[in-house]
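May I ask for whichever protein you like with its backbone structure tokens?
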Amino acid sequence: MKKLLIAVMLGIFCLMSVGIQASYAGEIDLLLQKLVEKGVLTGAEAQQVKTETQEQVKKEIAQGKFSSLPAWVQNIKFKGDLRLRYQNQHEKNNNDIQKDANIGRVRMRLGMEGKINDKVMAGIGIATGSGDPRSTNISFGDYNSKKQIILDYAYGKYTPFPWLQLTGGKMLPGDVFWEPTDLVWDTDITPEGAAFGFKKTLNPRASVFMNGGFLVVQTDSTSTSGASAFLVQPGANYQFNDTFSLKGAVSYSSFDVKDQAPSSYDKGYNTKYNSSSPTTGNYAYNYTMLNPALEFKIMQPFKALGLNVESLKFFGEYVNNLDVSDKNTGFSAGFQLGNEKIEKWGDWQFRYVYAMLGKDAVLDILPDSDRYSGKTGIRSHEGSLSYGLGKNVWISFDVYRSWGINGINGAGGKKPETLAQADFNMKF
């Protein structure tokens, strides 16, 4: 009889609930309290009913079936993060003069995804920043001036079949390519144009995928045709067993930029011509890059020693600019140890990457902006440690030790640099 009464009352609540989930939850709390006071339910039974009801409501909202919320509200998801950073940059130039820069920074990102129908969705993201394609950081200072909010991404995604995804607009990098390191692509870049993603499961252990797209680099002008790029990346996953897995891909990307004027965010380290200075003028080459990448993962690598470490990854990339015959290659190699993601207290992750980029290996508006300020013609070590302080809160420490290869653009000297970053991260 008691169970029947509870079921009837929960049904009444579903009909009575109006507006938003918060008011719905509040009404349930009030009714359960009254039932406990009248002796209809015990405290433990009331808590169980509350928990089961909340889980059901969450499930219905996720499926877009919660009748007390408009469908458009249930089909929209928000996400965001905030990062506070202290950064020290220590430089040493050719005549042994040292320079230190201490910077405070903040980064805010807010994203929204809306499900239009079963096959179409849209995503919009805003962030702090100045327009730099490789950074959404804002530095403190300038007499407490107000900071800018920019459009980080805006895209539409169409999934006509479970194995095919079509995306257009200012896209997230994961919709265009896969990369185990940021040797070629800084993770803050949001490519512009159109892309496709194909994936197919061959058997319980193996799957294949292919990414590709046409990217707009520079809009056409009256004096010259615009710069563009295309990319294709076939790859595969293989799960040997519950412990070992392997993922690999080969990217072929072509940036048609020869004779084009560089971007204002170009670092000036690629070969230029039409100028007496090697750092100015138009691009001397196109950048047709062949880029194989590999990642090998081991789950519970030290289980035999009694150590609870979730995973160990080894990864590497190689890049070759086929349009240039000298200083046209680069590579990265490293490992990652610890938890796959930092989600709660005690989760941790250590990562090390060694990278080398020849002067004309990649277009220098693309690589990691923290590695020698995003320049080419460099070598670099990077070590980072992250530790969870609670649900969706963590701290991280990242150190780069970088230097130029045989001088920069013929200027002589290696100009070593040490970059240290301490971050406080919050995700919601």
The longest helix spans residues 43-62. The chain has four helices and 19 strands. The helical segments are 2-16, 21-37, 43-62, 71-74.
